[in-house]
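Support case: tryptophanyl-5'AMP complex. Customer-provided input:
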Amino acid sequence: TTTYLTGIQTSGEPHIGNYVGAIKPALAAVESHDTKYFLADYHSLNAVKDPEKLRHDVRSVAAAWLACGLDPARTLIYRQSSIPEVFELMVILTNVTAKGLMNRSHAYKAARDRNEAAGASDLDGGVNMGLFNYPILMAADILVMETDYVPVGRDQQQHIEYTADIAKAFNHHYGEHYAFPIPQGVYPEGESSVLPGIDGRKMSKSYDNHIPMFLPENRLKKLVRRIPTDSTPVEAPKDPDTSSVFQLLRQFASEDQAAATRKRLEAGGMGWGELKNELFEVLNATFGPMRERYTELMEPGSALDGILAEGAERARERSRATLAKVRAAVGID
Ligand code: TYM
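Agent response - structure generated as follows:
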């Protein structure tokens, strides 16, 4: 069977971009594939230096998966930190990974440029080795489970390609003893599949421009109202393709509804306020029904802890088997 695996960083509550880019497509694959979805908690140490917040965010991402319909009897769900083999594999992989490849990472380059512009010191937000090594840790997540497909948003494409490069480098050296399957990314269709945030940039926890999936109704409404729009008067025609509000709407509305709204915007007579109300209604209809289950799971002592403990055990069994082969292949056994 083919293995599908994906992870979400636990640095903030999961947002509607995570849903469109990863959660929804990942859950659609459950029927026909061996699925493993995990919480990238060690990855988030780079962004989160507050232990209480980190604990909260881990629960929040786990609860989101479950509230969206992940069934732990069919899909393995676990915390990255429960699997020491991931970190052992990362050390092995660093030795077949070219430093030049990491130098070209978009995330690293962006952080380095911001850092230089701001004159940030190493202690307050400068580039650290966790950020530099991030793609190798991600490769270890994927390869330790001998993954075939990784459902992710387009923003992760370079990371998936790096993982394939790193796997090929390992196979080049050790392939006659053991070879990793070469993983492929599975991306949502359409150019608009990377969701904009409420400031128009890519929706991201690190830009703090995200719409959390399970905001209470009144806060969701307020947040949607805050999405900036231009001062085009109500009567004037508007271009849906340059409007973040419309880009968001069309990910969650039915095709018919999106087409009708597009027509009304282009014709003139529909104001931004009305469009925002429509977006709020659609988001509330999508996430409202899951919100209750999410809130239940977030309670201390909910079923969450047991599910993650069991996931940890099964995931370790699987990753131990990979590491036994990898260790033997490199000559450390
Ligand atoms: P993260 O936590 O930033 O995002 C989790 C998933 O959500 C997708 N996503 C988006 N999709 C569409 N529009 C957006 N605005 C948007 N923002 C986020 C991401 O593409 C991703 O699929 N490095 C990963 C976590 C990770 C991982 C892995 C993923 C660690 N190890 C192994 C897959 C396999 C990340 O930071 O995703």
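Residues 6-9, 17-18, 20-22, 40, 43, 138, 141-142, 150, 152-153, 155-156, 159, 194-195, 202-204 surround tryptophanyl-5'AMP (CB under 6 Å).

Case will auto-close in a few days if no follow-up is received.
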